[in-house]
Amino acid sequence: MPRLLIAPFGFKGTLRATEVARTIAEALRQKFPSGVVEMEGRPEPLTLDVCPLADGGTDTLAVLQFGSPPGRFVQKCLSVMGPLPQQTVEAAYLLAPAENMAVVEAAQAHGIHHQVSVTAESALNTTSYGVGELIRAAIQALKALSPTAAAVEHPPTLVVTLGGSASSDGGMGCLQALGYTFLTANREPLPVPISGADLPRIWHIQPPAEPPLGLVQLQVVVDVQNPLLGKNGAVRVYGPQKGAGPLEVTFLEAGLAYLDERWRALCRLPGLLPGHPGEVFYCANSLASGQGLPWFSQWAGSGAAGGLAYGLLHLPDVRTLSDASKTRDASSSLRLVEAIRSNRIRSGFEWTCAQLQLAQRLRLADGFVTGEGRLDTTSWMGKGLGELLLQAGNRPGWLVCGQADDAVRANLPANVLLSTLQHNLSDFSQPNSTAQHSEGAQAPLHCLVETCFPVAHFFNGS
User: Higher confidence at residue 336 or residue 189?
Assistant: First the structure.
């Protein structure tokens, strides 16, 4: 019995992953109305396993809800600051009471899809402050689920998924919403919210009196593996997508580099935070860095979401602080920071796949259909599509997308065929298609699947 896994990502700015998956499935059901295909001369019933995907960015919550049993997640909605200071957006996070877990999708607050226009000015002035507001609400919800004694024994987990961001503030807007204070050299508080434009004015960073996470353990789920700085860093690679021109890229890169130096200064000066519970945590990181362990800004994935991952790495939880208080030398500090690194930051695709049991579903599938809006070099920088193709092995696959760069097209695995809306439908007359179910962006995709689905690639004898 042939089984096709339909596992697409969203077409950024056009269709959500759930919409892409439903459209592909509907088009295939129309192409095979009897639900039967020919396999080696025999009719066989075709099974479609519909599993839209996300890699931590936009659509993550929708994908989790689509692919999870009813009742697993409870959606909590609230108004938070959007990517621009004067903007308010409606956002949500998911609470999984049975698992003592909350999931925050950062793009719900500072996603680039919230912006009407993307300009050089907005690239400088966007903020992650609203993400901090979402995190604060999720922490309160987790605390309400777990009394203190139970939380000590089984700490609740907060998962923050990153991707699709509009901001490049190194996560400082988010930390500001969680109680961190940023001061100028004259000890004057910087305005709320902080944006990328404010980074060069930071001189001192004052954590809140109590760690915001409390007993909650944090996992940062990232959609890319870029570090904070450098040619493969947050701003140089993704800044232009957020409206930054060459001047803005240079300014924001310098601001993030300066911010990193301020954090290093905070962490390597004992007594800078006298009596503060986070002091041992920050000093342990400084000691470990001196022993050759990469500093936060050098970690793979720290550049995700305009450096929001980097900011979140600076949040100590109570368990980490307890471990940090036992560090007495560089070697124990090294072990602590290695443990933080292995537990704190994870691949968005791997985490989402684990939640959706994708590995098991791939093993059951004879072939797969996937896609995303644009196929380019960033598709392989730890993003989900490239990881999916690796996991799929030699199974026959079909990749549908809006556009594909020629260089990337040439490097696809031999078992994966490619069709694009731009190329395959350039001369296609939509009214001649049987796809009458949808208007706008779904109709061309429906047409592409009905017209170009590579039957022989999947089903011998069809």
Answer: 189
